[in-house]
Amino acid sequence: MSSSAAEGPVTVIVNRRLKPGTEARCDEWLSGVIADVTRFPGHLGVDVFRPPNADTGDYVLTFRFDTYAHLRAWEESPVRAEWAMRAAEFTVGVPRVRRLTGFKSWFEAPGQAEPPPRLKMALVAVLGIYPLLILVVPTLHSLLHGLPELIAALLSALILVRLMRYAVLPLLTRLLAPWLAPKSPRQ
């Protein structure tokens, strides 16, 4: 991993297929993993995407950390090793693991082989930013009125980035999934 990628956020996407009838064991396992990973420094969040049918689809877990070093601390920990060993009891095969850094990680989607093309990511980002500029920026301007301009701009940027990353882009990537990552004819 490049040094610039190691400095920023990193997302790990893990695909696992369950043995039939083990969904309840998996749910217990997920609760334990999530409880433990949240205690690690730099943890930014975890998402679980369950397939519509566990017999034909993969469970997808995304782990997000603020730096590659914090991710490595989790991945190399005895705690994670224990959870991985337990998962072998109710999963089939070897997990598929991908790591995304930077802007590409904003567009992660379950079952997606790779991030969408840059042009599509840019268009979706513009589609997300535009309503925030129209609706949120005037509200922030009135709420932050009276603060020094540089402080108000910094707070606005922090709020807008969080809204984009955790609300707007997840919604847009779900809504536009067929366009962002069209399935091949064989899928």
What attributes characterize this protein structure?
four-stranded antiparallel sheet, single chain, alpha+beta, 4 strands, 18% strand, 187 residues, 2 domains
Provide an overview of this structure.
- A 4-stranded antiparallel sheet has the order 2-3-1-4.
- The protein has 187 residues and is α+β, with helices and mostly antiparallel strands.
- It has helices spanning 3-7, 23-37, 68-75, 78-87, 118-143, 149-175, 177-180, and strands at 10-18, 43-49, 59-65, 91-101.
- It has 2 domains: 3-107, Alpha-Beta Plaits (2-Layer Sandwich); 118-180, no CATH class.
- Helix content is 51%, strand content 18%.
Write the layout of secondary structure elements.
Elements: H1 3-7, E1 10-18, H2 23-37, E2 43-49, E3 59-65, H3 68-75, H4 78-87, E4 91-101, H5 118-143, H6 149-175, H7 177-180
Antiparallel strand pairs: 1-3, 1-4, 2-3
Helix pairs in contact: 2-4, 5-6
